[in-house]
Write a structure and sequence with these properties.
five-stranded mixed β-sheet, single chain, about 300 residues, alpha/beta, Rossmann fold
Length: about 300
Amino acid sequence: MSNKRTGVAILGSGNIGTDLIYKIRRNPHLEIRLVAGVDPASEGLALARELGYATSTHGIDAVLEAKDAKIVFDATSARTHRRHAPLLEQAGRIAIDLTPAKVGPSVVPCVNMGNDFTAPNVNLISCAAQATIPIVHAISQCTDVKYAEIAATVAAKSAGPGTRQNIDEFTRTTAGGLLEVGRARTSKAIIVMNPAEPPIIMRNTIYAIVSEDVDMALVRANVEKAVEAVRNYVPGYELTIAPFMDSDHIVVGIQVTGAGDYLPTYSGNLDIITAAATAVAEKYHHSMQSAVHAN
């Protein structure tokens, strides 16, 4: 099979877009062809230029002109992505949406996305969803999850203006992902921005109301398998509270430490979504390479 890299563009040069530069830079299957934003003073664009990548302050217009960028990471905002989505589709680009816009199907790379995935636009839901859905899904494979509730606590310093502006969509989209991908019947998502100093590492608590006769040995095995699957692309993903039954619900704790690429290690909430986005792009790369060789 060919080792040719797939060209990608990053749309949005804030914290998430800039961290993506590092993630994609070391991926053997992807190659950055453009980093586009709208702020000439952007630190992300300055870094991209320093690393030798093409940059533009013309946003989506520049991305549409970059014909060799087959995959576009949209790290702007939910409102902006809704405007970008039809333009990218018309241009024949694959859009990986890191906002809570929910235009395309929701994906968690280790849960519901194989190497033959072909949707032109996919949504990564939220950082909390990427951290908790693999656990809810693992439990749902053992028993009916009547209700899933997740509480994600992140450092206030790791929540930039984009996250704060999108907080309502963030919680709604996360709760929806617990149903659509996690397979819970009902759900709730709670996001807490903790201002503690020093900043805390991202922590997630998962509560799942299930049948009383659930096989907890099977649940623990499934959850441990899910943790290892996420760790394949998020090394700082860690099980901190092993699954245990409390009355009618299972409790699980997860911590996410960032890789420390562009963002501080306490920003595991941002790191997990950029790592997941890169994993999704890699799956698209393999799918495109398989299609080429099949022909």
